[in-house]
Amino acid sequence: MDLTEPQIPEAPTSTGHPRQLYMLFFTEMWERFSFYGMKALLLAYMITQLKFDEPKGYAILGSYAALVYTMPMFGGIMSDRFLGGRKAVMYGGILMTIGHLVLAVPQDWSFFYGMAFIICGNGFFKPNISSLVGTLYADNDPRKDSAFSIFYMGINIGAALGGLLCGYVGQQINWHYGFGLAGLFMILGLVVFAVGKKSLGQNGLPPNPDDLKAPVFAGVSKEVVIYVATLAIIPVIVALFHRYEIMDFIMFGLGAISILYILFIAFKMEAEARYKLFAALVLIVFSTLFWAFYEQNAGSLNLFAMRNVDMHVAGVQLPALSVNNFLPPAWVVILSFFFAWLWPALNRKGMEPNTPTKFGLSFILVGMGFYVFYLGCQTSEGSGLIPLLTFIAGYFFIICGEMCISPIGLSMITKLSPPRIVAMMMGIWFFASAVGEFLASKIGSLMSVPENVVNNPVLSLPYYADILNQIGLWSLGIGVVLILLGSVIRKWMGEVR
Ligand code: GLN
């Protein structure tokens, strides 16, 4: 039996998708609840509780976000080569649970250690849960895009609830309770997967189980070595948080290595597979820029929401962190229905945009979203507060952009990568968002507001307005370039749309 060949489940549910998709959906939903619940609190916690100055807060946020999405590359390789997706998801989930619970401990030491556990755990969890979805369908199965859209909805239901509840509990009641709440929901995700994973059949089993169990030294198996070696990385990550300036070199170095590595693999392949990898590479590189703009959400826009958005609704002051972290995933959930209808409808008319065009559109839409924020700033100079409706409208465009890149990218990776390296490629896809989020924190840092004006919206507003405008313009320009490059990329993709 070839364990690297995916086993396509039969007997779909009434939605036309196998029931295993829903098991993965709920696992990921609760995991993202905890992930985004925690992330909602991160920057504001550092600035208001740990009293980091703003540039340092952005730098630590950027380092966390960069590492949390760098580790999937390693988690992907470990899974392709040794563990298989199922063991990787279980191990990653356990580490993430520990990380969230450590963050709930109200001690200074817990902060960096909690993040380090989450970083390692996410490395094993995130790429593998996504590539397990891919194993349920053949590459040319037209249900694959829609499966990823459904899965993406699970991600965002979790993210919306997590942002809302943890954001509220953390900001209004106690920051550590907020982190702890995230941990409880991670446990729930783990339980769903532990119970449901058998239904995956041979999908996600280790590619070579005997090799994995075989002792490598002193009777200890390869599997245990992988687990222990991962734990050994945790203090290294903590040290990196203390010396976050080094992150610039690490991200630049790893970025260059991963591009070279994909090229190296591509050149060893037959022409068709090689060009598919080229196409994937170009789209991955562009996605980095997308995340650099988009991820202002977890950084500068959290503080912008606290300072410069009018959160009063019917005489009630809404908690800014909850609102800012609930809005994007909530828009994703709502818009998923629209896009689930739109793509097939356009397809029937032969008018569905191809993948590079969708990527280009995503930049144009994000650009429009940031431009709406900017216009909000321009018209609110008197009070310094932009209306909540403008904030909601800006996110509408940004999330339309996300719908054109993020789920499409996941699906694109599983289609363009040879099965043997699909989890690693998924890891590289997430690594692109690591570089993107790292850049996002640098952009965010340009919007640092001096201590003496943080409580004065009229004076803090100009620190945001100009950069928001520039993000909008850059994003529009990049979108146009990408659309122009579309025909070359499409040729490389072969018959895959
Ligand atoms: N919001 C999505 C998720 O959590 C995408 C994240 C990413 O690719 N950086 O899965």
From TrEMBL:
Keyword Membrane appears in the UniProt entry: yes
Keyword list, A-Z: Cell membrane, Membrane, Peptide transport, Protein transport, Transmembrane, Transmembrane helix, Transport
InterPro entries linked to this entry: Dipep/tripep_permease, MFS_trans_sf, MFS_Transporters, POT_fam, PTR2_symporter_CS
Topology relative to the membrane: Multi-pass membrane protein
GO biological process: oligopeptide transport
GO molecular function, one term: peptide transmembrane transporter activity
Organism: Rufibacter radiotolerans
GO cellular component: plasma membrane
Highest rank taxon of the organism: Bacteria
The protein, known as: MFS transporter
Transmembrane segments: 58-76, 88-105, 111-138, 150-170, 176-195, 224-243, 249-267, 274-294, 326-346, 358-376, 388-410, 422-447, 467-489
Protein location: Cell membrane
